[in-house]
Design a protein that fits this description.
The complex is a heterodimer of chains A (about 500) and B (about 130). Chain A is mainly α and about 500 residues long. Chain A has 19 helices and 2 strands. In chain A, about 75% of the residues lie in helices and about 0% in strands. A two-stranded antiparallel sheet of chain A has the order 1-2. In chain A, helix 13 crosses helix 19. Chain A is globular. In chain A, about 60% of the residues are buried. Classes of the chains: A mainly alpha (about 500), B mainly alpha (about 130). The interface between A and B is medium-sized, with 25 and 31 residues.
């Protein structure tokens, strides 16, 4: 249902774009908005079903019964991720209207057709219940994201090419892993495979398959030593693509990690031979510290945000790898928070890129406060949530993750969370201090006049920032539901 | 030892091709050679899946009167082949995008050598 809406929209854009150049952006936004509404409906239906004790919604394609045919599965986890991805994507696409005239040397219909294809791939990855089908959707979203990243600065195609090489290796390693699992189990259906894995969990071939899949998805999710493609891609690409890809691209890879490791293999299957969950947790912990430290060293706002993404994806994967319901709920809540925060921050960097022609942090001073009152207020909200101060949503996900490390008796990772929150504070307060306190050299702040972007761009960013406040206040019911999603 | 090799020689060769592809991608300094390495790498995976499906003495999976359908050793497994048809399409699309990016890189930098590109990007960031 969701995918059909995206396919039709991306095709429509290509067709309509031939005649009406202006129609692409509203159409793409409409498609994403429709998908967002549908996924909220899906979430409500799934919640009602769970309360009534009904199983997940399964839809087999082409009239074949699921173990043989390909199926789509809508359970609590996929409904949650669909909501996050489509909701954020709709708002980012709405916001992008104001950015079209500048910083985009592409034909708008082409651009929006690619963006819709990218979202189509992500939705497919979330919904599918078949390991090979997942690979196909992974490649659909990856290929369109390479093209989206290549639209940008002079070095953008180079960054996209490097991502393409790494991303394809990752995807192909995942495919080999799927091949091994097919040879061992004779099925590609996730639910079917879950029942077979306990019987063969200690076979060496399964271990190899597991390692290949973790590395393959790890490239896409930017798990610590495999993050190499991410900073350069996010820095060089245009501001619409970075706001679209950064918040949700790596999140969906994290979803695949959750789905394959926790749901298909399960805790016992994952750790049957080697303690892989611990390895992932420590790698993620290293990624958190490394990303934060690199972010402090950056002078370019977009590159700083990219390194902060490396660090934040570490939180999510660490929460997943700790294997307890509290950390799991924290990780899922962080998926939501980080998607909103990163979308907001990249939107703001696009405002600055648009008005100032530069996103160099060293240029920030208190004239920005006068020139961009709304943008800077939004930035402050998102940055405070990123650091994790209550009552913003970022605090509660970090709180749950910290509780999860205590639950797992892992004090090293507890220390990692605390110290990285301090490091986050260093780089975000550094900017806030410049904007609100630092005197500008020649021009007095009072002489600078308001130079704000249009309301069409201010409003989406503001809505996302206020959503952070809202999720912060009403975190308890959501966290309760998220905890029940942990596979028993 | 020898028996295991003869039984699994297809996998051993696939592994060699896989390594050749990886070598091309990560150690060649020319971007076109990297794409060639990429396509070798993907070809190796396709062969891995196809050799997974083959059976000694099996025939093409089309129903044939002399071999009843219940005799599963008589037919090869058709599923990996169909999967690989999709994977080939994905590979072609990937190479298309890769060459598209290469054309763009050439238009902007007039070179496809990694070292020259690194120098050019360093100069860009100095400005």
């Amino acid at each position: 249902m969701f995918v059909v809406s995206y396919i039709s929209v991306s095709l429509l854009i290509v067709l309509a774009g031939v005649r009406f150049k202006e129609s692409a952006q509203p159409l793409a936004t409409l498609g994403a908005g429709l998908a967002a509404v549908l996924s909220v409906v899906g979430w409500i239906v799934v919640q009602a079903n769970t309360e009534a004790g009904l199983p997940a919604i399964r839809y087999g394609f082409g009239g074949w019964a699921p173990p043989i045919g390909i199926e789509f599965v809508l359970d609590g986890l996929s409904a949650f991720f669909l909501m996050v991805v489509n909701g954020v994507a709709a708002i980012v696409l709405w916001h992008s209207a104001g950015n079209l005239d500048k910083h985009l040397d592409a034909h708008p219909p082409t651009f929006y057709a690619l963006a819709s294809l990218f979202l189509l791939g992500l939705n497919g990855m979330i919904l599918t219940g078949d390991l090979f089908n997942l690979y196909v959707f992974l490649e659909i979203s990856s290929l369109s994201s390479y093209a989206l990243i290549a639209i940008g600065s002079r070095q953008a195609p180079l960054a996209a090419f490097r991502y393409l090489i790494l991303g394809t290796v990752g995807g192909t390693l995942y495919l080999i892993g799927v091949g091994f699992m097919y040879a061992m189990t004779g099925t590609l259906n996730m639910i079917d495979m879950t029942t077979i894995i306990p019987l063969i969990a200690e076979e060496p071939a399964v271990l190899v398959a597991l390692l290949l899949m973790i590395v393959g998805i790890g490239v896409k999710a930017a798990l610590f030593p495999l993050y190499g493609w991410l900073p350069e891609s996010y820095t060089q690409t245009n501001s619409i693509s970075s706001a679209l890809i950064a918040p949700i691209g790596t999140k969906v890879a994290a979803y695949v990690m959750i789905r394959v490791l926790l749901f298909v293999f399960g805790a016992s299957g994952l750790n049957a031979v080697l303690p892989l969950s611990e390895v992932i947790a420590y790698l993620a912990g290293a990624g958190i510290l490394f990303g934060s430290i690199m972010a402090i060293l950056q002078k370019n706002l977009k590159r700083m945000l990219a390194f902060s993404s490396v660090s934040q994806i570490g939180y999510i994967l660490m929460g997943v790898a700790l294997m307890n319901p509290i950390a799991f709920a924290g990780a899922l809540f962080h998926v939501l928070n980080h998607a909103i925060m990163k979308a907001t921050l990249f939107m703001i960097s696009s405002h600055l890129e648009r008005q100032e022609e530069s996103v160099d942090i060293r240029d920030f001073n208190d004239s920005y406060r006068v020139k961009y009152p709304w943008t800077m207020a939004t930035f402050t909200l998102a940055a405070i949530s990123m650091i994790g101060l209550p009552p913003l949503a970022g605090f509660f996900s970090k709180w749950m993750l910290a509780l999860g490390t205590i639950e797992a008796d892992n004090w090293v990772l507890f220390g990692v969370i605390l110290s990285s929150s301090l490091l986050n504070a260093v780089y975000f307060f550094g900017i806030l201090e410049k904007v609100y306190l630092r005197r500008s050299g020649q021009k007095k702040a009072s002489q600078a006049s308001m130079n704000e972007v249009s309301w069409g761009m201010r409003l989406p960013a503001l809505i996302l920032a206020l959503a952070l406040l809202g999720f912060g206040f009403f975190n308890v019911p959501l966290l309760d539901i998220l905890q029940t999603l942990f596979p028993a | 030892m020898m028996e295991t090799f003869i039984a699994n020689y297809a996998y051993a060769f696939t592994l060699i091709i896989l390594c050749v592809g990886l070598y091309g991608m990560f150690f060649k300094r020319n971007l076109v050679k990297k794409v060639i390495g990429l396509s070798i790498f993907q070809a190796a995976v396709i062969m891995f899946f196809v050799s997974l499906a083959s059976k000694m003495g099996g025939t093409v999976p089309v129903k044939w009167e002399e071999i009843p359908v219940e005799m599963i050793d008589g037919y090869m497994n058709p599923l990996p082949h169909t999967l690989m048809l999709t994977a080939i399409v994905v590979g072609v699309a990937t190479q298309g995008v890769a060459f598209g990016l290469l054309v763009n890189i050439w238009n902007r930098f007039k070179t496809l050598e990694e070292d020259a590109l690194n120098e050019a990007t360093l100069e860009d960031s100095r400005d």
